[in-house]
Automatic annotation (TrEMBL):
SMART domains: Dabb. This is Stress-response A/B barrel domain-containing protein. InterPro entries: Dabb (IPR013097), Dimeric_a/b-barrel (IPR011008). Gene3D superfamilies: 3.30.70.100. Coiled coil: none annotated. It comes from the Bacteria. It holds the Pfam family Dabb. Residues 1-98 form the Stress-response A/B barrel domain. It comes from Prosthecobacter dejongeii.
């Protein structure tokens, strides 16, 4: 199960707030039951009608199963801390959760 999260930060954040957001986002990659974690920014790919470069940061987390994802959402201390600290820093967040088709 892949948890894809895209963040649009508030435009008036201080450099310290942006640094806090980045550090807290990166900390989510260290959750021990993840298969893999990735934090990024929009890649400098060619502008095309199907490409969205408008977000500021992305978080991609690969969970072994839905139970791990559900624990992450409801009980994971690192995730709950991230939400508590960083929610004031973003205007918009979009989540795309995907499961394999095989």
């Amino acid at each position: 199960m892949i948890h894809n999260v895209y963040f649009w930060l508030k435009k008036d954040l201080s450099p310290e707030q942006v640094e806090t957001f980045e550090n807290e986002l990166i900390a989510l990659k260290t959750i021990d039951y993840l298969e893999h974690g990735f934090v990024g920014k929009p890649a400098p790919t060619e502008e095309r009608p199907v490409t969205d470069h408008s977000f500021d940061y992305s978080l991609i987390l690969h969970f072994k199963n839905m139970q791990d994802h559900d624990f992450y959402q409801k009980e994971c201390p690192k995730h709950l801390h991230f939400v508590n600290v960083c929610k004031p820093f973003f205007d918009r967040v979009i989540v795309y959760d995907t499961s394999p088709i095989h």
